[in-house]
Design goal:
Blueprint: H1 6-24, H2 31-38, H3 42-45, H4 47-66, H5 72-92, H6 96-109, H7 115-124, H8 127-155, H9 161-182, H10 199-203, H11 206-234, H12 242-247, H13 254-269, H14 271-289, H15 294-322, H16 327-377
Helix pairs in contact: 1-8, 1-9, 4-6, 4-16, 5-6, 5-9, 8-9, 11-15, 11-16, 13-14, 13-15, 14-15, 14-16, 15-16
């Protein structure tokens, strides 16, 4: 890659990935309002979020392969336009099935802006610059997730959630155009070696699969808590407005600090200790969220973010340190399990919430936390 202003590249990556992640969680804080407008049950309305995650899970591996065969610019262009176009459909439709179909289409093409750009950076940048620019990528996933929640339930009135979809569609188009015009073409010459490991060969290695399952279990808990918390806080004894509930999502920004900190802990103390510590924090957080107390909710939600990002950073770090080749495909599988776990968590907890309310969500989440806890307890004792 020729001399290039890396700050400019960081900003483009940050903007594009932030816009992509804003689309994912845009509907989360306004689910009660969407439910009321379309007259459907809680399990049904949860598909406004889980359909996106399912689409991402299905499309992640294909886009991971496609970016090895095609230039990045047309992939980003098509992906960005499809995500934005489907977002406009969500804003304009009066049919709930059409809204869910459009959200699923968004999920199918969001990997064109996330998985593809990560693979592009991996094969474009020299090693000494890769970690710096990827730092912008990780920060963008956190702030994009926060931005989607704030856009949907705070920047626009909850009754006008459709305007949030329109604004996000415009943002997606703008960042897509900037990236298509500004991203440099990758050079085939570089320090990165093409892996011959297949997805099947990676899945046959149980030490790696453990980290994939860890990602699925922890994200199932995290996504379910954030998805159904608005319903919990809208009911007695809280009776919160959508705007008040959305303000709590500011704790999500903790991921910017916790993820790199957990990575350093994992190197210093070992992935075993870090995974166990993060899982125990998650367990405590879920117990606090069961209490009918404002302080318990604030502290519990903050602890959910701290525990999740601790587990997530430790698992993905341990995965990459255990690899000698196949990093790209292994990380694609990690992301696949991650989002399948989120989709399953949201879907199953939607059914539980209908029958047992918030207690059902907390009960299943407590069981799911046992997955990363078990992975941590069975991890090697020395740093890995």
């Amino acid at each position: 890659m020729p001399a290039f202003p890396y700050l400019r590249l960081q900003l483009m990556v940050f903007a594009l990935v932030s816009a992509a992640f804003t689309n994912i969680y845009l509907a989360q804080p306004v689910l009660p309002m969407v439910q009321a407008q379309f007259g459907i049950d809680i399990a049904g309305v949860s598909w406004a979020v889980s359909a996106v995650i399912l689409g991402m899970a299905l499309a992640n591996l294909p886009f991971g392969l496609l970016v090895d065969r095609w230039p990045i610019q047309p992939i980003i262009l098509v992906g960005g336009l499809m995500v934005a176009g489907a977002g406009l459909v969500c804003a304009l439709t009066d049919s709930f099935p059409v809204l869910i179909a459009a959200r699923f289409v968004q999920g199918l093409f969001i990997p064109a802006l996330t998985t593809s750009i990560a693979a592009y950076l991996g094969k474009t940048l020299p090693i000494e610059k890769l970690s710096v620019v990827m730092g912008s990528y990780v920060a963008a996933t956190v702030l994009g997730g926060l931005g989607g929640r704030l856009m949907g339930g705070w920047l626009f009135p909850a009754d006008d959630w459709r305007y949030a979809f329109m604004a996000t569609a415009i943002l997606t188009v703008l960042t897509t155009v900037i990236a298509v015009v500004g991203l440099p073409k990758p050079s085939n010459a570089g320090p990165h070696v093409k892996s011959t490991l297949s997805y099947g060969q990676l899945l046959a290695q149980w030490p790696l699969v453990r980290y994939f399952i860890c990602a699925a279990g922890s994200f199932a808990v995290f996504s379910s808590v954030f998805n159904y918390l608005p319903f919990r806080l809208a009911d007695a004894p809280f009776g919160w407005s959508t705007e008040a509930t959305t303000t709590l999502y500011l704790v999500y920004i903790m991921g910017i600090f916790m993820a790199p900190l957990a990575g350093r802990w994992s190197v210093r103390f070992g992935s075993r200790a870090t995974l166990v510590a993060g899982s125990l924090v998650l367990l405590l957080a879920l117990l606090l969220l069961q209490l009918a107390s404002l302080i318990a909710v604030v502290v519990g939600l903050t602890a959910v973010c701290a525990g999740f990002f601790c587990v997530h950073a430790a698992a993905v770090g341990a995965l990459n340190r255990s690899l000698t080749s196949g990093h790209g495909r292994a990380n694609a599988l990690y992301v696949l399990f991650y989002y399948v776990g989120g989709w399953l968590g949201i879907s199953l907890n939607g059914l539980l919430y209908q029958h047992w309310g918030w207690t059902g969500v907390i009960g299943l989440s407590l069981l799911l936390v046992l997955i990363p806890l078990t992975v941590g307890l069975t991890e090697r004792r020395h740093p890995a």
